[in-house]
Specification:
It is a single chain. The protein is α/β, with parallel strands linked by helices. It has one domain: HUPs (Rossmann fold, 3-Layer(aba) Sandwich). The protein is 36% helix and 18% strand. A 6-stranded parallel beta sheet has the order 3-2-1-4-5-6. Strand 1, helix 1 and strand 2 form a beta-alpha-beta unit. Bound molecules: adenosine-5'-triphosphate and nicotinate mononucleotide (NCN). Adenosine-5'-triphosphate binds next to strand 1, helix 1, strand 4, helix 4 and helix 6. Catalyzes the reversible adenylation of nicotinate mononucleotide (NaMN) to nicotinic acid adenine dinucleotide (NaAD).
Length: 188
C-alpha cells in the first residue's frame, strides 16, 4: 500500500507554512507522497477566492521538482463546493492501493465538529493535526499529532501584505512570488 498524505486547501496563495508541514509530516509518518489538493470553492469560506487556474499554477510553482510532492486536482473536476467526505470516498475508489492521511492545521482541527458527515469521515481517513499559532489541537476526534515548528504565515497575511505593498520575500517560494507579480494578483 502506498502511504499518501493529503493536504487539502485553498492555496490562495500557497506558502512556506504549507510546504513546511507537508515536508515534516511526510518524513515523520514515513509517507511516500504528499498530494496538495486545491478546492474549487472552500466549504466554509464566504469570501471570493482567486480563479482555480491561478491557484493550481501557483501550487506547481511552489512544489517545483520536489519528487515526493504532487498536485491532486480531483476537487476541481466537480466545479462546485466539495466536501472532504465526498472527496475521500472518490479517492479511495480511484486509488484502492493507497492509504490516505488527511493533514490539517489547528484552525481546521477546531472546526472538525462542523465538517460534513464528520463521524463517517473519521472512519474513512486518518486525520493528522499540526499546530498553528493561535489554535489548539484539542479535540475528541482520534487524530495523530505531528510536531512541526509553528510558523505564523497564512495566505490571508500574504494577500494583505501584497495589497499594502509590504515584502513577502521570506513567506513563500520565489517562483510563486514571480507568478503573483506577473499576473498582478492580490494588488487590489
Ligand atoms: N502556517 C501554517 N501552519 C500550520 N498549518 C497551516 C499553516 N498554513 C496553512 N495551514 C493548513 O493548511 C491547510 C490549507 O490552508 P489554506 O490553503 O486555507 O491556507 P491559509 O493560510 O489557512 O489560508 P487563509 O489565510 O486564506 O485562511 C489547512 O488545513 C490549514 O490549517
Ligand atoms: O468537508 C468539510 O465539511 C470541510 C470543512 C472545512 C474544510 N474542509 C477541507 O479542509 C481543507 C482546508 O480548508 P481551507 O478552507 O483551509 O482551505 C480543504 O481541503 C477543505 O476542503 C472540509
Amino acid at each position: 500500500m502506498k502511504r499518501v498524505g493529503i493536504l487539502g486547501g485553498t492555496f490562495d496563495p500557497p506558502h512556506y507554512g504549507h510546504l513546511l508541514i507537508a515536508d515534516d509530516v511526510r518524513t515523520e509518518l514515513k509517507l511516500d507522497e504528499i498530494w496538495f489538493m486545491p478546492n474549487y470553492m472552500p466549504p466554509h469560506k464566504e469570501n471570493k477566492v482567486t480563479d482555480h487556474t491561478h491557484r493550481v499554477n501557483m501550487l506547481y510553482a511552489a512544489i517545483g521538482d520536489e519528487p515526493h510532492f504532487r498536485v491532486e486536482t480531483i476537487e476541481l473536476e466537480r466545479k462546485e463546493r466539495s466536501y472532504t467526505y465526498d472527496t475521500i470516498v472518490l479517492l479511495k475508489e480511484r486509488y484502492p492501493n493507497a492509504t490516505f492521511y488527511f493533514i490539517i492545521g489547528g484552525d481546521m482541527v477546531e472546526y472538525l465538529p462542523r465538517w460534513y458527515r464528520i463521524d463517517e469521515l473519521i472512519q474513512l481517513v486518518q486525520f493528522v493535526g499540526v499546530k498553528r499559532p493561535g489554535y489548539s489541537l484539542r479535540t475528541t476526534y482520534p487524530i495523530i499529532e505531528v510536531d512541526v515548528p509553528m510558523f505564523a504565515v497564512s495566505s490571508s497575511l500574504i494577500r494583505e501584505r501584497i495589497q499594502r505593498r509590504k515584502s513577502v520575500a521570506y513567506l513563500l517560494p520565489k517562483a510563486v512570488q514571480l507568478y503573483i507579480k506577473e499576473n498582478r494578483l492580490y494588488e487590489t
